[in-house]
Amino acid sequence: MSFNLKFKDIDEKRDLKDNYTIQNLLDDMELSAQTIVAKQNGELAIEESVIEDGDEIQLVQIIYGG
Questions:
Q1: Which residues in 34-60 are b (16+ Cβ under 10 Å) and which e?
Q2: pLDDT, tens digit, 9 for 90 and up, residues 11-43
Q3: Would the pTM of this model clear 0.85, i.e. be above it?
Q4: Fewer CB atoms inside 10 A, N or C side of the chain?
């Protein structure tokens, strides 16, 4: 079981663990949910969303400014 991860220059397949969530992925990558928006198969996803086999997860960096 695996999922596809897209983030900046990363476009790779990753092995999928049981009950693996967006938050688990962010923690593993040492990223903060306050600066990253996650999309699961093209739809916005919350941190508690469970990643399923074959999902495409795209992480988007939020840019602050004024």
A1: eebebebeeeebeeebebeeebebbbe
A2: 999 999 999 999 999 999 999 999 999 999 999
A3: yes
A4: C
Nearest partner of 14 among 2, 23, 22, judged by Cα: 2
Which tokens go with 21? 């969530």
Name the β-bridge partners of 39.
Answer: 44, 58
Cα–Cα distance, 55 to 62 (Å, whole number) = 22
